[in-house]
Amino acid sequence: MTSAQSTEMSNKTSYTWSVKEFQDLYTRMGPSDFMMSERFASSQSVTINPETGAKDPIHWWRLILYPHGYVNQPDYLAVFLTAFRSKHEKKNRAKSRTVQRFWFELFRVDDPDVKSKKLTQLAIRKFKKSVFVFESLDDVDTLGTRKLVPFAEIFEDGKIQNNVTLVIRVHIINEENEIRTNPFLSSFEKYFMDERYCDVEFEFDCGSSIKSNRFALASRSEYFDSLFNGEWSVAGTTPIHVKGMKFQVFKAILYYLYTDKLGNDLSLDTLQNLYFDSEARYLEDLKEMAVIRIGEMVNVHTWDQILRFSLKINEEQLKKTVMSFLHDNWDE
What we know:
Layout: E1 2-9, E2 12-19, H1 22-28, E3 35-36, E4 40-41, E5 45-47, E6 55-57, E7 60-66, E8 76-84, H2 87-91, E9 96-110, E10 118-127, E11 130-133, E12 140-150, H3 151-154, E13 165-174, H4 183-189, E14 200-203, E15 209-212, H5 214-220, H6 222-228, E16 240-241, H7 247-259, H8 268-280, H9 284-296, H10 303-313, H11 316-329
Parallel strand pairs: 14-16
Antiparallel strand pairs: 1-2, 2-13, 3-7, 4-7, 5-6, 7-8, 8-12, 9-10, 9-11, 9-13, 14-15
Organism: Racocetra fulgida
Domain MATH: 12-172
Domain BTB: 198-266
């Protein structure tokens, strides 16, 4: 009753899933019952065997369809994209997978028994930069929508007995480079806090200060570039007073701009503040790093604080990490 087709182009992967005789699935399956597509791979590949040249995909995916709706949304078709941790990701101990964006398209095939088929688009749902998190005991993660389209729009005039074929397409834009390599950024790391190359100093209410290089910051951040062309435009020996930000958070931002990394000695409170300050300065990758690190810090002492934080920022994956921890450790 289903067929599939996968196409690849540069860092974009598109997969088409045709679900025939959908009306039978709708009537025979209940809310929360689901079906899965075949596995399909993203366009990037990694060589596994250097002698034979055998390759294994970096990313494996499936689509999940709830033909009679999700358990608490029985009036809507639910569709999800599921990430499966690949051999490459397991080998490199990857705890998450990031895609720049992905989106679903849903079509109904009008008159599926007729040779010249006409597609009617029923819905399109887009997702911005998304992180699929692999839990310690689970090699899959799922993102999607419980309300892609009402069933009333799938069945014309409410005629459930009519023959219906649905076509579901997913388009995934992967990271440009799965493994980042940037010699220019790597060469910056050894200059972090090296006063020989510093031409600007920042001071804080706590009395601490830190020196840096204007070019290093401006070249990596539109926020700093704008400030150095505005209120901080005059170079000199007078320190710039930073208001409304803690020293450790600001230092973590500078370290990221020099190294493209997140510091290892950051407290939970610092990471939470870093999330908001990164968001305010359009540092999306750093914000994402902070969320992932916070998820790695869930334990019996921190779970409640992290759960409150996940609810505050509406971060579903972080919430799932906490709930999974509670499920596995409730007896303790």
